[in-house]
Amino acid sequence: MSEALPKRPPSRGPSMGDVAAHAGVSAQTVSRVANGLTNVEAGTRDRVLASMQALGYRPNKAARALRLGRFRNIGVMMFTLSSFGNIRTLEAITVAAARAGYSITLVPVEHPTQHEVSIALDRLLEQSVDGVVIVIESHIVDQADVDLPPGLPVVVIDSAERTDYPVVDTDQSQGARLATEYLLQLGHETVWHVAGPELSYSASRREQAWRQALLEAGRRVPPPVRGDWSAASGYLAGLELVESSGVTAVFAANDQMALGVLRALHERGIPVPAGASVVGFDDMAESDSFWPPLTTVHQDFDVVGRRSIEVLLAEIEGGESSPGTIFAPTRLVVRSSTGAPPT
Amino acid sequence: MSEALPKRPPSRGPSMGDVAAHAGVSAQTVSRVANGLTNVEAGTRDRVLASMQALGYRPNKAARALRLGRFRNIGVMMFTLSSFGNIRTLEAITVAAARAGYSITLVPVEHPTQHEVSIALDRLLEQSVDGVVIVIESHIVDQADVDLPPGLPVVVIDSAERTDYPVVDTDQSQGARLATEYLLQLGHETVWHVAGPELSYSASRREQAWRQALLEAGRRVPPPVRGDWSAASGYLAGLELVESSGVTAVFAANDQMALGVLRALHERGIPVPAGASVVGFDDMAESDSFWPPLTTVHQDFDVVGRRSIEVLLAEIEGGESSPGTIFAPTRLVVRSSTGAPPT
DNA sequence: CGAGCGCATGTTCACGTGAACATCGGCTGA
DNA sequence: TCAGCCGATGTTCACGTGAACATGCGCTCG
């Protein structure tokens, strides 16, 4: 928190009053024109528009927000921009919000600690936001002793379990099942798993579905190796898996870790997919160019972003809160990193 | 632009007046406490703080902004979140701004056309922003017939040439030279280049420096192959390069395209680095896990983000505009994708 | 032909805040 | 003892906007 010392007067632009004086009408008429109301005579409207143009008038959002009690602004709280999923989600949210005439205020959380989440949430609430999208492992959000103001519309992404807020998310379970079953179907005896961090709901849901799919097929469930979503952690996990014997199929909880696994396999001279198959999750743009191109579970982040904003706007503008979870389906994208097990 | 129909009154939170009444003081005293002024008796302050707590008071940012003419908000205009550089820059900007007590409003530009840039800029100006960071190929910004309001503080990233605004950027030329000279030093006769899109200043500066370095070393300058930053375009470029004979060293204008080049080389059975060397630009987190791990030019996006905000805040709070360019230095990260040319 | 209605436009006011100025009480120093 | 001053607190006001209400004009219809 640094101090702000306003050294010079913050030159304000022209106001409605200025435009009104220039056009020879009342401020209210300018307001009507600015808001596109129809009950203004064409000639008057043109005159006002001309004056706006001439003076370079721009409506003052602060004044409008103060008057209306609405800001047309949505707060987004996000832990990191390092993960592909978060980035794409943010992009989708931003675009969807912009289309609805809302802007986005992004609040970073540098470290995923309760304390920092509380701080960030606090800062978010002091912003002028009509609603909030939280894209953070909700384990942390749950633990954080923050009480969201009761009236504040909220949507949570990458989360579950709590039923008091609407949740929008990719159907993690379906995707993980897709990946696991595909590998089994190729003839692999079982499937190893490189899991995401413990704190992440998406990670645990993917892991759970992987386990479930194996159990249902009556296969052995090997112990999962845990990473932190990063390619580096995937590499480490890959090295560990290579040590164990009999690993023929690996399902990594995201593409970045899958990339690390691929590296480990290459380093140890294991050909992919001839020696081992690898499947990722996310379908990031680059996974097509991995070596070999990665078979992965495609997530539709655009849908997640769009639906989140829809739900949030329904809350904001309609007042209808709809607790519950909306799932976006996934699909398997088969490329060259998967094949039959070595004989 | 959708219509907003406010169906229910936007429940407002408690105001200073409410807190004042609750604490038995005047609204002005509440204001003083809220702003941390010292001329309030300890007992009074405690009473006010208790009342704030009790009522769940949060200062209304719109009212404050209206009163002060300042918003503590910075607009960021960005074309895409698909490029690693943009993402890291955004992250750095967000963190730096948050540290200074500013929030970030993100405005997306879906397609890099003049028209959309104008629209976006317009929308940004209607937001309550104290300043703007533009992270867009400035070819487009230049062409767009938008006149930024004269008083508005602006910083441009990924740009150059125009001297009326401060520009903060990575030292593209230095980085490209680093990469090219390193490859020559390894014994390669010359260096092929996979360039970025024509519209990008960073791309053209990297290309220019690559050319310059070759010329200075008295080497032949092969025709550059142009991509669009994506791994897919890098793959295509790689296929094209593989056709030409005598390609032993490739400098790709970013890591994503380098990844595509690697894929093309693998596909054609050319070993890296034994058969050909590849260098990227960016040092994205994953490049360490490419196969083989990628030698690349490391950009310090944190510095770029931080310096941008510094310059912008100096403009906003100090009123000192400092046109000119600030360059952040790069460094070469040598990994396993480079080696001596095949004999 | 005049009462009344609809439509364009004007006037008033409050949204929540903080700067400027006003007030009030106690304390210092000649 | 009292003028003067300082520090805590209160009062007034304007920031730019849009809702609610007021005005005034022309036209329709009985």
Question: What do these coordinates show?
Answer:
2 copies of one chain form a homodimer. Chain A has 343 residues and is of the alpha/beta class. Helices cover 43% and strands 16% of the residues of chain A. Chain A is built from 12 helices and 12 strands. The first copy, chain A, has a 6-stranded parallel beta sheet, sandwiched between helices. A 6-stranded mixed beta sheet of chain A has the order 7-6-8-9-10-12, sandwiched between helices. In chain A, strand 8, helix 11 and strand 9 form a beta-alpha-beta unit. In chain A, helix 1 packs across helix 2 (27-34) and helix 5 packs across helix 12 (301-318). The longest helix of chain A is centred in the last third of the chain and has 18 residues, at 301-318. The relative contact order of chain A is 0.11. At the A-B interface, helix 4, helix 5, strand 2, helix 6 and helix 10 of A face helix 4, helix 5, strand 2, helix 6 and helix 10 of B. The structure holds a DNA duplex (30 and 30 nucleotides).
Low-confidence stretches of chain A: 1-9
Strand order of the largest sheet of chain A: 2-1-3-4-5-11
Shape of chain A: elongated
Q: Oligomer, anyone? A: homodimer
